[in-house]
Write a structure and sequence with these properties.
By secondary structure, this protein is mainly β. It is built from 2 helices and 8 strands. It has helices spanning 47-59, 130-135; strands at residues 7-16, 19-24, 34-35, 38-40, 63-76, 81-92, 112-116, 142-148. Strands 1, 2, 3, 4, 5, 6, 7 and 8 form an 8-stranded mixed β-sheet that branches. The longest helix has 13 residues, at 47-59.
């Protein structure tokens, strides 16, 4: 299998009124897996600038980007895909209401959930350490080691 460079992505850990914002990880109901909003970094833009763009595309929300709190890696060895994600603490600037008719221009994100910490155990969320990073504000950034992609 040809070697590919890892893809870099930025993700937003947005906790508003004690609820974490989650979005669907796969388009079109392909999976019930949820993750933090964000996506691949475009060359020539900083990770925070990429993240602001991605959050707006996926949710219509404007955010300020804070410190990194989690680094996650996953891969699909069948196709040589490897992604490194840097999660940043973010704060919504302005209204935190996501319009019911908001549409992701890439047609990936079509579901948004504001979940309390006690609800996360009933949801399929990746990476595994997202809740810990979101709801504990002290300490260094967490590293969630390489795992095989799931659907």
């Amino acid at each position: 299998m040809p070697t590919k460079s890892p893809r870099i992505a930025a993700r937003a850990v947005i906790v508003h009124e004690n609820r974490l914002l989650l979005v669907n990880a796969w388009p079109g109901g392909k999976s019930d897996l949820l993750c933090a909003p964000g996506g691949g970094a475009e060359p020539g833009a900083s990770l925070p600038d990429n993240l602001k763009r991605e959050v707006f595309e996926e949710t219509g929300l404007h955010v300020s980007v804070g410190a990194p709190c989690l680094i996650n890696e996953f891969h699909d060895p069948r196709v040589g895909f490897h992604q490194i994600e840097i999660f940043f603490r973010c704060t919504v600037t302005g209204d935190a209401q996501i319009a019911s008719n908001w549409q992701d221009p890439e047609d990936i994100v079509d579901r948004h959930i504001w979940a309390r910490q006690d609800q996360l155990g009933d949801l399929r969320v990746k990476p595994d350490s997202l809740a810990q990073a979101a709801f504990s504000e002290d300490g260094p950034a967490i590293y969630d080691a390489l795992e095989t992609i799931v659907m």
